[in-house]
Write a structure and sequence with these properties.
By secondary structure, this protein is of the alpha/beta class. It is built from seven helices and six strands. Helix 3 packs parallel to helix 4 and helix 4 packs parallel to helix 5. The protein starts with 7 loop residues before the first strand and ends with a strand.
Length: about 230
């Protein structure tokens, strides 16, 4: 594909693994043992995502991904976490921030993808208003291009709430876009589905519409007119 303008893949995904995140946990978690029985991130919603379609590769090595981008004429890709989309369901605010910080380092400098890929950062949606802005500043200093707000959280409040204003203030100040990305289906009224196809069809748009509606009617974009937001 040839074009006279750069093409950007705005929603690539990293299949992060606990063993790759462990060395980046830091603090009191840096010397803690890792128990492989339990995942660092909570289950998105109880559905099995640990197996895939027969014949499909469980992973895409960086060289193959780069070849794919070249075949399509894609200039660069913005990468998101996968299991990490459940970060908003983490009950412990400290652990949420530790994971957010660790996943920033999920694409180490010098990896085959680093020259061609930008990576969306992770904002931990904890109630401590000082933490997410610091993570945005850290992400900006590392050259990352956006902050990620998981669309489903355990906080019982939407992103229109003023508790999240420090995040929006930091995003405006740093000139850094924010993204709202769905994945978990908890609490959206279709827990009775027994086919993943049904859940996967609705879990992204419903969660995003809920958050976007709350942000609009609670005046986020009036309070922060320069805020850039992307939904995915």
């Amino acid at each position: 594909m040839n074009s006279n303008y750069p093409i950007i893949d705005a929603d690539g995904h990293v299949l992060e693994k606990d063993r790759e995140l462990h060395d980046y946990l830091g603090g009191r978690y840096s010397s803690a043992p890792r128990f492989e029985t339990y995942s660092y991130f909570p289950s998105l919603d109880g559905w099995n995502r640990g197996t895939g379609v027969p014949g499909k590769d469980p992973e895409t090595p960086a060289p193959r991904w780069l070849q794919f981008l070249d075949e399509l004429g894609v200039h660069t890709t913005v990468l998101y976490p996968t299991g990490g989309l459940g970060l908003g369901l983490v009950q412990n605010p400290e652990w949420a921030c530790v994971l957010a910080r660790a996943t920033i380092h999920g694409l180490p400098t010098g990896s085959p993808m680093s020259a061609r890929a930008s990576k969306a950062s992770r904002c931990c949606p904890c109630t401590n208003p000082s933490k997410p802005p610091k993570e945005l500043e850290r992400a900006k200093s590392l050259g990352l291009v956006a902050g990620l707000l998981p669309a489903v959280t355990a906080l019982h409040k939407g992103y229109g709430h003023t508790d999240f204003d420090p995040i929006y203030e930091a995003a405006e100040r740093l000139d850094m876009p924010l993204t709202v990305h769905g994945a978990p289906s908890r609490g959206m009224g279709f827990d009775f589905f027994n086919k993943f196809l049904h859940v996967h069809t609705l879990e992204h748009p419903f969660a995003i519409l809920i958050q976007f509606t709350h942000m609009i009617f609670e005046g986020v974009f009036v309070r922060f007119p320069k805020l850039a937001l992307r939904v995915s």
